[in-house]
Amino acid sequence: MADELSWQCESETLHLTGELDSDTVGPLWRQREQIMAGIKVLNLSGLSRVDTSGLALLIHLVAFARRQNVEIELQGASDNLQTLTKLYNLPEDILPAFAG
């Protein structure tokens, strides 16, 4: 059974914790517009697992912010997530560069 996904908004940072996968993305997806209001940083350091559904959600969160003229910073991405993005050979502008 997947670890539940939880999130916490702190100032301009959205902290994600747990697993971001096909079993857990639903609640965050349904609340994404409210959750992303005022967010400039996605802190991914608390994620234990991200699958392709989770990666797709991250892409959508970044795209949503860009439509609001906000450039998102991604912090704390695991090596596995960085590898997943490389395997999909995503265009460089689809996600911002991963920060420490």
TrEMBL record:
PROSITE patterns (alphabetical): STAS
Pfam family, one: STAS_2
Residue stretches making up the STAS domain: 14-100
Membrane-crossing residue ranges in chain numbering: none
SUPFAM superfamilies in UniProt: SpoIIaa-like
Gene3D superfamilies, alphabetized: STAS domain
PANTHER family (UniProt xref): BLR2341 PROTEIN (PTHR35849), INTERMEMBRANE PHOSPHOLIPID TRANSPORT SYSTEM BINDING PROTEIN MLAB (PTHR35849:SF1)
NCBIfam families: mlaB_1
Record-given protein name: Probable phospholipid ABC transporter-binding protein mlaB
Protein species of origin: Buttiauxella agrestis
